[in-house]
Amino acid sequence: MDETTGAVRSMYEQYPYPSGPVVNRVGGDVELVLSYGARRRETSGPYRVLDAGCGRGLGLLGAATLQPEVRFLGVDVSRVSLEDARRQADQRGLKNVAFAEVDLMTLDGLEVPPGGFDVIHSSGVLHHLADPLAALAGLRGVLAPHGVINLMVYGRCGREALQDLAGAVALLFPSDVGLKDRLPAAREAAALARGHALAGTRFEDTAGVDDVEFVDRMLNVNETSYDVPALFDLLEAAGLTFLRWLEPADWDPRRLVPEGELRRRLLDLEPRQRFTVLERIFRPAGLELIVAHAGNEPRPPLSAADLPRARFRLHPETVINKGVRHTPADIRTETLSFTVRTRKPVALGAGPVAQAVLVLAEKPGTRTGAALISELRRAGLGAPEAQAIILELLRNEVIFRLP
Ligand SMILES: C[S@@+](CC[C@H](N)C(=O)[O-])C[C@H]1O[C@@H](n2cnc3c(N)ncnc32)[C@H](O)[C@@H]1O
C-alpha cells in the first residue's frame, strides 16, 4: 500500500465514515441507472454492483435491501468500516451483499464477475485517492461494456472556503500531531469561521457536526476537488464519457435561469461550457454524475413507434403524493402531485395525466407500453392520448424505461 493510501486508511479507521443510518440513495436503483446508457447488456444472470470505497456501506446496504435479486460488493481499505458494514448486513439478514478489503489504487484481490460489473458506485472517494486518474481508469477496466459508473466528487468551487480553511488549520500542527489532538483547535477555528470564512456557504454548520464528519471535512489527510473542466478532462483521460448528471435539473438553464439573454446564451453553448458557467454561478459542493465507457452514449428518447414493446416501471426516485378525503359515503383523491428527488412538487389537476398516474400508482410493477396503453384505455383514455401521456410521464421521470 502506498504511503498516502496508508495515511487515508488510518484516518478512516479512526473515524469510519459516515456516521448515521442506512440510506436509500439517489442513483441506487440498478435498472434505473443502466437505463441512462444506450448500450444494452449482452449477458444474463443477476446484475452485479461494485461500491468502490463503500465506507460503512450505508448506501450499499439500503440498495441491497431494496433489490434482493441484485448482487452487491462493497470494497474499502478501512477494515473498521468493513467490519461494521458486515455486521449490519448480517443483522439485516442480507444474502446479496459481500464486503472485501481492496485498495482502489491496485484493485488487488478484487473479484470481478465474468464480463465486468454492471454498475459501479463511487461516492466521495476518488478525491481522497493517491492517484485518482489511475484508480478511475482501473475501475473502467472492471466495468462491463454496457456498464455505468455513478460518481460523486468534491466540487472545487463549492468547497473553496472550506478547503482554504482546512489548509490554514493544517498549518497549526506539526506533522506528528494525531487527528484527535487536532480536533479542539480545529473546532475553534470552524466556530469562528461560521460568521466569516464559512458564512453563507453550505459548510457554515461545520463546527457543530460530529467528529466523523468534522474530520472528513476539516482534517482530511488527503483530498483534492474538481471543477467541471478538470472533471471532464479526468473522465476523458480515463476513457470514460459523461452520460448525465444525477440530478439534471441542477444543470438545466430552463429550470435555473429566467427566460432572457443569459438563458439563451447558455443554451447555445456546448454542454461542457454551459456546465462551467452554471458551476461558477451556483457553486455546487459536489459533482454527481453518471459516466460510461467512451463510445457509449446517453440513451436516445423513446419514439412512439418503439413504445408498445418498451417496458416501464414507476420511477424509484419519484414520490407520488396522493391527498385522499374520507367522507362517510366516499373515499376520494382530492389532490395529486409528484416530487422528483428534491425538486419542488408538481401538482396534477384532475385531467388525463392525473388519471394515468392514479392507474400506475395503484399497481406498481413492470409493464410493457402495450399493456400500459390498454390499461389507460380501460380507464377511458383514447389510444393516441394514452401514448402521448406515457411519453410525458417518461420525460417527467414519473416512470422510466427499463434497460
Ligand atoms: C468519505 S468516505 C465515503 C464512504 C462512502 N462511499 C459514502 O459515501 O458514505 C471515503 C471512503 O473511501 C475509502 N478509501 C480511501 N482510499 C481508498 C483506497 N485507496 N481504496 C479503497 N477505499 C479507499 C475510505 O476508507 C473511506 O471509507
Walkthrough of the structure:
There is one protein chain. With 403 residues, this protein is an alpha/beta fold. Helices cover 38% and strands 20% of the residues. The chain has helices at 3-14, 30-34, 58-66, 79-91, 132-141, 156-170, 179-193, 211-218, 228-237, 253-256, 261-268, 271-282, 352-362, 369-378, 383-395, and strands spanning 48-52, 71-76, 97-101, 117-123, 143-154, 240-245, 286-293, 311-314, 318-327, 330-340, 346-347, 367-368, 399-401. The longest helix has 15 residues, at 156-170. The mean pLDDT is 96. It binds S-adenosylmethionine (SAM). S-adenosylmethionine binds next to helix 1 and helix 3.
Task: State the gist of this model.
By secondary structure, the protein is an alpha/beta fold.
Write the layout of secondary structure elements.
Blueprint: H1 3-14, H2 30-34, E1 48-52, H3 58-66, E2 71-76, H4 79-91, E3 97-101, E4 117-123, H5 132-141, E5 143-154, H6 156-170, H7 179-193, H8 211-218, H9 228-237, E6 240-245, H10 253-256, H11 261-268, H12 271-282, E7 286-293, E8 311-314, E9 318-327, E10 330-340, E11 346-347, H13 352-362, E12 367-368, H14 369-378, H15 383-395, E13 399-401
Parallel strand pairs: 1-2, 1-4, 2-3, 4-5
Antiparallel strand pairs: 5-7, 6-7, 8-12, 8-13, 9-10, 10-11
Bound molecules: S-adenosylmethionine.
